[in-house]
Amino acid sequence: MNVPQELKYSKDHEWVRVDGNTAFIGITDFAQDQLGDIVYVDISVQEGDEISEGEIFGSIEAVKTVSDLFIPVSGKIIEINEELNSAPETINSDPYGEGWIIKVEMSDTSEYDALLDAAGYQEVAG
């Protein structure tokens, strides 16, 4: 299981990478492995939408199941990874890079600070 040290994690298996006040959000290597082959990413928010920590922002459909996506930090949606529309399997091959799902302008950085570090996430994921 690949768990980069520089990222923060939610108990719902999302990762967060921060650049200034922008949070890149995706699902973890563990999550994509558990889901199996990802065939569709359905994002239910739009750029400009405000979203609160813990809300569902979409779902991921895999061959085996469908899983909701929960936003780990509150803020405004500033970009959705449109590449996933035609290549959702990018999440399987590069979950922490090109497989990011959305970018959020954070409204409360204390939520980021409260997320799990790599060691804490490894305990949750087993």
Cα-atom Rg, whole angstroms? 13 Å
> Secondary-structure element sequence?
EEEHEEEEEHHEHH
Q: Flag low-confidence runs.
A: none
- Average per-residue pLDDT, rounded, comes to 96
Which sheet architecture does the biggest sheet show? 6 strands, antiparallel
In total, how many domains does the architecture comprise?
1
**Can you tell me the overall shape?**
globular
Topology diagram in text:
Layout: E1 8-9, E2 14-19, E3 22-27, H1 29-35, E4 38-43, E5 50-51, E6 56-62, E7 66-70, E8 75-80, H2 83-86, H3 90-93, E9 102-106, H4 109-113, H5 118-125
Antiparallel strand pairs: 1-2, 2-3, 3-9, 4-6, 5-8, 6-7, 8-9
Notes on the protein architecture:
With 126 residues, this protein is of the alpha+beta class. It has one domain: OB fold (Dihydrolipoamide Acetyltransferase, E2P) (Beta Barrel). It contains five helices and nine strands, in the order βββαβββββααβαα. The protein has helices at residues 29-35, 83-86, 90-93, 109-113, 118-125; strands spanning 8-9, 14-19, 22-27, 38-43, 50-51, 56-62, 66-70, 75-80, 102-106. The strands form two sheets. Strands 1-2-3-9-8-5 form a six-stranded antiparallel sheet. The radius of gyration is 13 Å and the shape is globular. The mean pLDDT is 96.
